[in-house]
Amino acid sequence: MSALRTTLLPLTRRAAGLATTTSKRAFSATAAKKGGHSPQYDPPTGWLFGVKPGEKYVNEGWENLYFYGFLGSFVVFGVAYAWKPDTSIQTWALEEARRRLEAEGILEDPDHKKN
Question: Which keywords does the record carry (predicted)?
Fold first, then answer.
C-alpha cells in the first residue's frame, strides 16, 4: 500500500497543478537585474553642484517656490506657536485654586478695588 502511495503522489500533485518538491520555480516571472549604473549616470566632476568657477548658477523653476514655501511655512509656524493658548495643567490648577479661595473669602479678588 505504501509503495502505491509513493508512486501515485507525484502524479496526483502534477495533475492538480501543485509544485512537486523537485521542481524549482522563480518567485517572479521577470529576471532580477544585478545592479550597476543606468545609462544616465553622470560621473563626478569635482565642482560644487556641477558649476565651474566663474560660471553663474542658473536657478531651476522649482527652486524659488521651494525656498519661499519653506520660509513662509516656518514663519506661519513661529507665529502660531508664539500665540498658542496656555493649556497646561499647572495654569488651570492655579486659576481653579484662586477661584475657589476667592469664593470662600480667603483670598481677595484682585479686580475688586477698595475705595
Answer: Electron transport, Membrane, Mitochondrion, Mitochondrion inner membrane, Respiratory chain, Transit peptide, Transmembrane, Transmembrane helix, Transport
Distance, CA of 110 to CA of 114 (rounded, Å): 10
Per-residue pLDDT of the chain (115 residues; tens, 9 = 90+): 555 555 555 555 555 555 555 556 667 666 666 666 566 777 777 888 778 888 998 888 899 999 999 999 999 999 999 999 999 999 999 999 999 998 988 888 777 776 6
CA separation (Å) from 107 to 24, 53, 98?
Answer: 86, 74, 7
Cell numbers of 103, please?
A: 469664593
Give the 3-state DSSP-derived string for the chain, with helices as H, strands as E and coil as C. CHHHHHHHHHHHHHHHCCCCCCCCCCCCCCCCCCCCCCCCCCCCCCCHHHCCCCCCCCCCHHHHHHHHHHHHHHHHHHHHHHCCCCCCHHHHHHHHHHHHHHHHCCCCCCCCCCC
